Amino acid sequence: SGWSDWHTVQTNTNWQKLAFNDDARTSAVDISASGGTDKTKFYTSVSYNSQDGILIGNRFKRLSGRLNLDQSVSEKFKIGINLSLTQTTAGRVQSDNEFSTPMQIVALTPVTPFKDLDGKVYNSPTTTYSNPYVDYINGKYNSVIYRNIGNVYGQYNFSSSLFFRTEFGADIQNQNDDQFYGFDTDFGSGSNGYGESDWRRSLDYNINNYFNYKKTFSEVHDLEAVAGMSYQRYNSEYANVKGEQFPVEALQKIASAALIKGGTSVETNSAFLSYFLRANYKFDNKYLVTLSGR
Q1: CA atoms within 13 A on the CB side of 225
Q2: Are 292 and 226 spatial neighbours (Cβ–Cβ below 8 Å)?
Q3: Which of 95, 113, 133, 148 is the most buried (most CB within 10 A)?
Q4: DSSP-derived 3-state class of residue 219
Q5: How would you class 182 by CB atoms within 10 Å of its CB: exposed for 0-12, middle for 13-18, buried for 19 or more?
Q6: Can you tell me the distance from the alpha carbon of 67 to that of 51, in angstroms, rounded to the nearest whole number?
Q7: Which residues share a beta bridge with 228?
Q8: What count of Cα atoms within 13 Å lies in the side-chain half-sphere of residue 5?
Q9: How many whole angstroms separate alpha carbon 155 and alpha carbon 102?
Q10: CA 32, CA 43: separation in Å to the nearest integer?
Q11: pLDDT in tens for each of the 294 residues of the chain?
Q12: Contact criterion met (CB below 8 Å) for 69 and 128
């Protein structure tokens, strides 16, 4: 029980309270503008969001921007672009069933003090089990994500009833998870520190080309038809590396590890090509017939 006398209940530590952040805050800022002329329309926005988790070690920040632009080149032809950029940073905690998870701290006995007389946080064997708070102050688990989503299109109107539209869209995401646990933590105590790095990248793009026809005959016959093609391709890559035996806790990158414990890399690819047709017929706004195929 450390420096205190458990026989006289000299200490009554509220371990559960230490797992929560009493000063968790949320803040958000959104700025947007829109406007244009009879030929040009635009919308732009910037957003910032920050959240502190109620559990220690949990936090979230996101900065994003958006631009939508539509331009009428002529009476028959128009183009446009939609672009979104996002940066997300997050402080994460370990998965369940591990003693480094904050809520595992409730397993510690209340007769054990939180710190010794020199101000150092107690850990096993003084505490009943490994103290998750030590992993919180001497470890990190951070994620940084960059995501870009964009779409461009062009549309040509042959007449008031028929137009052709082509679209290209892409979703690009990069994510890096960085972990380090110091010499006194549950993960790093037996290996002179533990580090792990995960890197992910995904690219998802699609192309759509289609004709759209819509017309009313004799005021009671409504016909709408869409015919075209769609192509989608997806690629993802993942790499992971783990290391131990760090010279000092200040050097937390895998390059400083004296021992590389393992690693892997994976790549996934897929593609999808389809042709589609859809027709809707409506009579006198009462009867509807729909045919579709892909």
Answers
A1: 9
A2: no
A3: 133
A4: coil
A5: buried
A6: 25
A7: 210, 276
A8: 2
A9: 54
A10: 7
A11: 788 887 777 888 999 999 999 889 999 999 999 999 999 999 999 999 999 999 998 999 999 999 999 999 999 999 999 999 999 999 988 765 566 788 888 888 898 899 998 889 988 888 888 888 998 999 999 999 999 999 999 999 999 999 999 999 999 999 999 999 999 988 888 899 999 999 999 999 999 999 999 999 988 999 999 999 999 999 999 999 999 999 999 999 999 999 999 999 999 999 999 999 999 999 988 899 999 999
A12: no
- Is-contact 31 62, C-beta < 8 A? no
Rounded-to-integer distance, Cα 69 and Cα 41, Å: 6
Q: Which residue has the tokens 């016909």?
A: 223
Bridge partners (DSSP) listed for residue 169: 151, 206
| Separation between Cα atoms, residue 184 and residue 251, nearest integer Å | 15
Q: Specify the pTM.
A: 0.84
